[in-house]
Write a structure and sequence with these properties.
- The strands form 3 sheets. Strands 1-2-9-6-5-3-4 form a 7-stranded mixed β-sheet, sandwiched between helices. A two-stranded antiparallel ribbon has the order 7-8.
- By secondary structure, the protein is α/β, with parallel strands linked by helices.
- The protein has helices at 25-36, 48-53, 55-64, 83-95, 110-122, 136-142, 180-197, 199-213, 217-236, 251-260, 269-286, 292-304, 321-330, 358-368; strands at residues 6-10, 17-22, 42-47, 69-74, 103-108, 128-133, 147-152, 155-162, 167-171, 339-344, 350-356.
- It folds into 2 domains: 6-177, Rossmann fold (3-Layer(aba) Sandwich); 200-368, Dehydroquinate synthase-like, alpha domain (Up-down Bundle).
- The protein is built from 14 helices and 11 strands.
- The chain binds nicotinamide-adenine-dinucleotide (NAD).
- Residues 47, 49-50, 53-54, 76-78, 81, 108-112, 114, 134-135, 137-138, 141-142, 145, 147, 156-157, 174, 177-178, 182, 185, 269-270 line the site of nicotinamide-adenine-dinucleotide.
- Nicotinamide-adenine-dinucleotide binds at residues 47, 49-50, 53-54, 76-78, 81, 108-112, 114, 134-135, 137-138, 141-142, 145, 147, 156-157, 174, 177-178, 182, 185, 269-270.
Length: 370
């Protein structure tokens, strides 16, 4: 019997699925999959780091359950979310003679989840896939909700599809091999859920942070609470026409900074989100919407988690304020030239604001940049 600490159901009608959270689900995956999806073959997509650290556990468990599997290993990093690697995955799945009814497994962080999910959405006009997220970011965010895709020269995530997984297996023990900087980056998304509309969760995070960082019982609880939050939002707004945009708190500034730094190691996605969330709170304070002490409290907690909270902490020179603003305008959250931001009235009180004045954003960035 698999040891499951938490189950979150994503109630999306015929696209409904479970998120199972437990301490050793990769070792138990073979039995779980054989029971839920009898008679399938499996195409595992992973990256070179995860292949080294976690793939042997999954492969052994599929072997033990007698499940046939092929593996496609890609280079690690954001640049793998490309047209070229999409082709590698699609052609690899076809070469492995996987049928439409077979299953793709995305074993890795958000990069692998987004890429393998998109490849599943388009190979043979749509194959089923299972998310096995191995980074904190992927466990609390990217593996849930069905947004899949790759990056374009025009920006991040501009090419993709909504394609829900059939199952998510979040094995908490995989986080033990995740580098601490990556753990911290994922933690930015954990804090985000509190900051959107759950101030009680943000309080709880402030109290339980040490146990979460050390992999204690609070880690599983935090992952489950984040997944439940994301599931609620996705059920309400699967295709992001409304409230789902709240999940982008901190992402408009964050994406612009990520683009400016070339999606490189200079700034990880979660680090951009961390700086972006502090900027969103500070900008809201400047606009007279939120109390100043809340921005300070957010920054203090993210700093404690080892995250950058200011643009000055990004190594190397940033581009011009005009280019940052252009990146914000290029972001897909723009509607007919007006800037859309997630602003806040304080911790846990985020809201979507359409038509933010680009001049005000320009002046704010000038003030905040090093
Ligand atoms: P990632 O997939 O690049 O993983 C981060 C690094 O950690 C990589 O080097 C990876 O090889 C390594 N790694 C992952 N798990 C490991 C493990 N258990 N042990 C050792 N190394 C491990 O990045 P990420 O932060 O997981 O995801 C970021 C991506 O997710 C971005 O492309 C972002 O756009 C996307 N994203 C998607 C959604 C969505 O809804 N689809 C939401 C948020 C973010």
């Amino acid at each position: 019997m698999a040891e499951i600490d938490h189950t979150v159901h994503v109630a999306l009608g015929e696209r409904a699925y479970d998120i199972l959270i437990g301490p050793r689900l990769l070792d138990e995956a073979g039995a779980l999959l054989a029971e839920r999806f009898p008679g399938r073959r499996y195409g595992i997509v992973t990256d070179e780091h995860v292949a080294k650290a976690q793939l042997p556990r999954l492969a052994a468990s599929l072997d033990a359950a007698g499940l046939e599997h092929e593996t496609i290993v890609l280079p690690a990093g954001e640049s793998t979310k490309s047209y070229q690697k999409l082709e590698t995955v699609v052609e690899g799945l076809l070469a492995a003679r996987l049928e439409r009814g077979d299953l793709v497994i995305a074993l890795g962080g958000g990069v692998i989840g987004d890429l393998a999910g998109f490849a599943s959405a388009i190979t043979r006009r749509g194959m089923d896939f299972v998310q096995m997220p191995t980074s904190l970011l992927a466990q609390v965010d990217s593996s849930v909700g069905g947004k899949t895709g790759i990056n374009s020269a025009h920006g991040k995530n501009l090419v993709g599809a909504f394609h829900q997984p059939k199952l998510v297996l979040a094995d908490l023990s995989t986080l033990k091999t995740l580098p601490p900087r990556q753990f911290a980056a994922g933690y930015a998304e954990v804090a985000k859920y509190g900051l959107i509309d759950d101030p009680g969760f943000f309080d709880w995070l402030e109290t339980h942070f040490d146990d979460i960082r050390d992999g204690g019982p609070s880690l599983g609880e935090a992952v489950a609470r984040c997944c439940a939050h994301k599931a609620r939002v996705v059920i309400e707004d699967e295709r992001e026409t409304g409230v789902r945009a709240l999940l982008n708190l901190g992402h408009t500034f964050g994406h612009a900074l990520e683009k400016d730094t070339g999606y490189s190691d200079r700034l990880l996605h979660g680090e951009g989100v961390s700086i972006g969330m502090v900027l969103a709170h500070t900008f809201s304070t400047r606009l007279g919407l939120a109390p100043g002490q809340d921005a300070g409290r957010v920054a203090a907690h993210l700093r404690r988690a080892g995250l950058p909270t200011t643009m000055a902490e990004i190594p190397g020179a940033l581009g011009s304020t005009e280019s940052l603003l252009a990146a914000i305008a290029q972001d897909k959250k723009v509607q007919r030239g007006a800037l859309t931001f997630i602003l806040t009235r304080g911790i846990g009180q985020a809201f979507i604001e359409h038509g933010v004045d680009p001049q005000a954003v320009h002046a704010f960035l000038e003030e905040m940049r090093p």
